[in-house]
Amino acid sequence: MSLPIDPEQFDPDDIGEVQTTLEMEHEAAIEHVREAFTDAGFGIATEFSPSEMLNEKVDAGRDPYHVLGACNPAVADRALDASDNRMGGLFPCNVVIWEEQPGIQRVYHVSIMRIARLVGMAPDDETMSEIISDTGELVDEAFERL
């Protein structure tokens, strides 16, 4: 099976890719990211550690890796309306924190709103553009707080 799109054609801005590094321990980074996103207007709807699960279940030997599922309810509601409810398949907006090396954590996020529009789950119209802009501003604010 070949992909219908060439992932190499996308610029990180096309998918709303944002990342940074934090010089702190992993657990402190998780708390710091949680606070930054909460202060920017997101709630944390879910969170889990894939590394803990995989290390336990399949002895993966993974370094610390944590996912925060961030959600701004007002924007999520608008996105569901704009996409005939399909956006829910990508909820929540995940922010990932992984340990690159002891004391250095990578914080990574891509825009589910942008990706949904690129793959046709959400319309390419003014309403979706406004939603993408609004979520982008919230994510930018959160990353500025980091």
Describe this structure in words.
This protein is an alpha+beta fold. It has a single domain, classed as TT1751-like domain (TATA-Binding Protein, 2-Layer Sandwich), CATH 3.30.310.70. 41% of the residues lie in helices and 23% in strands. It is built from five helices and five strands. The chain has helices at residues 26-39, 50-58, 73-82, 112-118, 126-145, and strands at 18-23, 43-48, 65-71, 93-101, 104-109. Strands 1-5-4-3-2 form a five-stranded antiparallel beta sheet. A hairpin with a 2-residue loop joins strand 4 and strand 5. Helix 1 packs across helix 5 and helix 3 runs antiparallel to helix 5.
CATH architecture: 2-Layer Sandwich
By DSSP, the count of extended strands is 5
Across the major sheet, the strand order is: 1-5-4-3-2
End-to-end separation in angstroms reads: 40 Å
Structural class: alpha+beta
Biggest β-sheet description = 5 strands, antiparallel
CATH fold field value = TATA-Binding Protein
Give the helices and strands as they follow along the chain: EHEHEHEEHH
Mean pLDDT: 95
Number of alpha- plus pi-helical segments? 5
* Strand portion: 15-25%
The tally of structural domains comes to 1
Helix content: 40-55%
Low-confidence stretches: none
The CATH class, by name, is Alpha Beta
Q: What Rg, in angstroms, do the CA atoms define?
A: 16 Å
From the spread of the alpha carbons, the general shape counts as globular
